[in-house]
Amino acid sequence: RSSYSCCYFVLPCCFFDFHGKYSRRQSKKTQYREYLDFVAQVGFVCGFHVEEDCLRIPSTKRVSFIGKSRTYPAAEHALIDRQITQFINSRPTCAVATCDRRVGFNHEDHCGGLCKKAGSEHPEDETETTGTTWMPGFQPREKVEQVRNCASLPRDFVDEVVLNVANLLLNAAPQKSCSDRQGGNVNTWNQGESLSLREVAEHLDKETLKKLKSEYGGLQTLLKNNHQVFEVLNGRVHIRDWRKEKPPSKTKPEVKRRLSAEAFKTRLCWFFIHHPDGCSLPSEACPYAHGTEELR
């Protein structure tokens, strides 16, 4: 409805209608095929020659639709816009059920008479025309979406919270002994204690918690974002022990194995810098840089 010269490409994925989740109207097709037919129908009602294509992408949802040309002359744009308005308003009701119940699907007959009905019955009753609101209550997104996943928080603030939580875990219990998987020797690298998210939050000041509450996920999201340092399982926070991480798969292609063996280290190791016992892994085995000289 943007303009007569508008073209479109759409890759249908999640099953949504104009007013909410798409409701199935038959069981003779798969849910995916029925939804694809509905999306194609929308394109046809909007006056497009709808073309279907299958993309060469690694996804189960790879059927796309392209609208490159119109089925009507530019002079009829206002009339088609009234038909579109009626089609949108008919979706919450069962008015279009007769279209969707058909077993087959023909691109030449998507609207199943709905377009004729829209064009012939009381067009003067339609209050919406070209240039006005597309549908009642429609609210588009803001042009600039606010990122609220803790990624926009100041780096200094995040580093301070990470250090505070790590020290809390390290000091929560007496130092434990643990065995080194690589050499089988017993050492005293401090793994710290595990605490619930609630217990961790109780040790943070109110100002910090206020900042975190303004972000989706809050404290848990921030800790999960710092995958290098923490592991969050079933609502409990642990210091990550990199010796227990699963080794990389041996099924990688030879070229990828060679690249990974060169260890492109782009971030410093938090444990090498901040942990009282240093990193639990030797430099050659750690995926992070032990010093700036290893950074690439």
Automatic annotation (TrEMBL):
Record organism: Prunella himalayana
GO CC entries: cytoplasm
A biological process from GO: tRNA methylation
InterPro entries the record matches: tRNA_uracil_MeTrfase, Znf_CCCH
Name assigned to this protein: tRNA (uracil-O(2)-)-methyltransferase
Principal localisation: cytoplasm
Role description: Adenosyl-L-methionine (AdoMet)-dependent tRNA (uracil-O(2)-)-methyltransferase.
Catalysed transformations (reactions): uridine(44) in tRNA(Ser) + S-adenosyl-L-methionine = 2'-O-methyluridine(44) in tRNA(Ser) + S-adenosyl-L-homocysteine + H(+)
Location of the protein in the cell: Cytoplasm
Signal peptide extent: none
Zinc finger (C3H1-type): 263-293
Superkingdom classification of source: Eukaryota
